[in-house]
Amino acid sequence: GESVGLHLPTLSVQEGDNSIINCAYSNSASDYFIWYKQESGKGPQFIIDIRSNMDKRQGQRVTVLLNKTVKHLSLQIAATQPGDSAVYFCAETANDYKLSFGAGTTVTVRA
Amino acid sequence: GAVVSQHPSRVICKSGTSVKIECRSLDFQATTMFWYRQFPKQSLMLMATSNEGSKATYEQGVEKDKFLINHASLTLSTLTVTSAHPEDSSFYICSARSTGRLNTEAFFGQGTRLTVV
Q: Are strands B76-81 and B107-108 parallel, antiparallel or unpaired?
């Protein structure tokens, strides 16, 4: 069935560099997307969201880009810090119902 | 942001016993709550959608008689794992979405680590 997936399972980044995490989705009806951060042993933590009528949204040190043409979502983290080390999930929903999660990307920040 | 509290955070039980996990929305009302299961190094898999005052909707492959869900109020949903077996050992996570707000993020509990021995 349709699902949300991630291109890369792991990402190693030098502290201070920018990180880019990618996500592909297949449900063309999806209209709302969220990025979550999950630290070991904890529940997902909301990072940023974007609706399908937008293609870019910025938060504090984070930017989400949405390309509906190719069904691609990305999360950019500026000046990556050690505290950014975690697993990042994209999630999508259609018609404001249940969320479907991607496989997750493990981000490791090198000092 | 809104707070979802999940209890207990860790539980160890013997095979054949039942375990109840609570999920509370502390500062908002949640018509709908969701229960997920997460195995190590895997993503969150939706188990069921819990609707206040009605029966839960289970995802394909999830046994409704084994994973009992009760959503008795707008701030509390419970998941009971009945007759637990070692293969039920997992990280269970609930989430809640605020009533009446469209296109909003779901807030997650801190998760419950269940170990069945």
A: unpaired
